[in-house]
């Protein structure tokens, strides 16, 4: 009996609903609604400088302006890599890659400027052959409009006319002389023109042709190219200079001026009040 009495007195009390907070609390970080991230984004047109024949060279994506995060500020400084074949509608120039950097945003147009140039890997690999010397040189040049640019040149030795010998290796003294000529021509051609003129020289490979011609007296060369161009330093941003590079890129939507006819003005003057 005593045992039964103690059992009845030591029964556990029932827990009140809502007292234990852990039971009612929902899991931390509940499932969020899946939102398509592309709904928050908008497309901008990439405008290439007037040096190239195709001006509208692509589109780019950015998140819409939200609070202090402005879309146009996020686009500035963005670098786009485009094939020269697409920029000039010429399949023969597909081995060249052009880098364009976003300088300014006008409406939904991204105004770009030249930022660099490179050869494709497959083109570079196709140039390398056995039984000859590979000669490389680079030079840092400052253009007339304040851009500091580094040019990289590549060249390969070739056989002389009617040569019977299998190899055509140049001596170290000849390589030094060729490298010196390369540096001289690159610095001379780039330092006396502005960026726009330099790009116009780089596209048709006129600098490479000049180097090949100048070095013929030292050793015959083949496949002389400006392999790479880097823009190291830029002058302070100037919207007028950028508009010069783009020609009429920003003024596409402006209306044409209407000239008034003289006889109508005369009729209005003759009316009595």
Structural commentary:
The chain has 273 residues and is an alpha+beta fold. It has helices at 2-9, 21-24, 71-75, 84-88, 121-127, 172-191, 195-202, 206-214, 239-246, 262-270; strands at 41-47, 56-63, 79-83, 96-106, 109-119, 134-142, 148-157, 221-233. Strands 1, 2, 3, 4, 5, 6, 7 and 8 form an eight-stranded mixed beta sheet that branches. β4 and β5 form a beta hairpin.
Which helices and strands occur, and which strands form pairs?
Elements: H1 2-9, H2 21-24, E1 41-47, E2 56-63, H3 71-75, E3 79-83, H4 84-88, E4 96-106, E5 109-119, H5 121-127, E6 134-142, E7 148-157, H6 172-191, H7 195-202, H8 206-214, E8 221-233, H9 239-246, H10 262-270
Parallel strand pairs: 1-5
Antiparallel strand pairs: 1-2, 3-4, 4-5, 5-8, 6-7, 7-8
Summarize the structure.
The chain has 273 residues and is an alpha+beta fold. It is 30% helix and 27% strand.
Which structural traits does this protein have?
10 helices, 30% helix, 273 residues, eight-stranded mixed β-sheet, 27% strand, disordered N terminus
